[in-house]
Amino acid sequence: MENNPSEELLVARAKEGDHAALSQLVVNYSSRIYHLGLRLSGSRQDAEDILQETFLIMVKKIGQFQGKSSFYTWLYRIAVNVGLHKLKSKPRKYDHISIDDPDFERISSEAASEWPKFDYDVVNDRRFRQKLDRLIEKLPEKYRTVFILRDLHELSTEDTSRILQITPSNAKIRLMRARNFLKEHLENMIKAEVST
């Protein structure tokens, strides 16, 4: 096998039953799928389960991949579906304020484009990251998933909408609501810490 075959070639070989190509696809995407699972579930054990189940489904269904989207979009869709199924089967950990409530829109009317750009992976304060993770977990899953895919995994709106099988405008609305919810709660958290 070539040193660095293209994704297209790896997928073609994997569809023909090439075990080395399948293994290479797993190696190429394991880290991203694990981190997606971790952010969706908040649990290392669940993230490992999501990772394993995603790749088992990939191996079984790779022959059905038609190339209408990129391979990673197809694989992410599998991982998101596995993760959402796992979340639905678990009891909810947190109550949350409904961000579907019209009052929330009135209170948090700032545009989504004003969400500050920051690199989640380089936020060094462990306590802040833990609080942010808890806030992300409080988001209803339809908003949390869009936020994770767009802002934490930096996928495009188009890829996110394809993975979740929603329209791009719906993805943008969900992202705006997620960002507004997090922004408001982060501001409150910072104010509380400053006043203590």
Please, could you describe this protein's structure?
With 196 residues, the chain is an all-alpha fold. The protein folds into two domains: 7-88, Orthogonal Bundle (Rna Polymerase Sigma Factor, Chain: A), CATH 1.10.1740; 102-195, Winged helix-like DNA-binding domain superfamily/Winged helix DNA-binding domain (Arc Repressor Mutant, subunit A), CATH 1.10.10. It is 69% helix and 0% strand. It has nine helices and no strands. The protein has helices at residues 7-15, 19-41, 44-61, 71-88, 102-107, 126-138, 141-152, 157-164, 168-195. Helix 2 packs across helix 4 and helix 4 packs across helix 8 (157-164). It is elongated. The model is unreliable at 92-119 (pLDDT under 50).
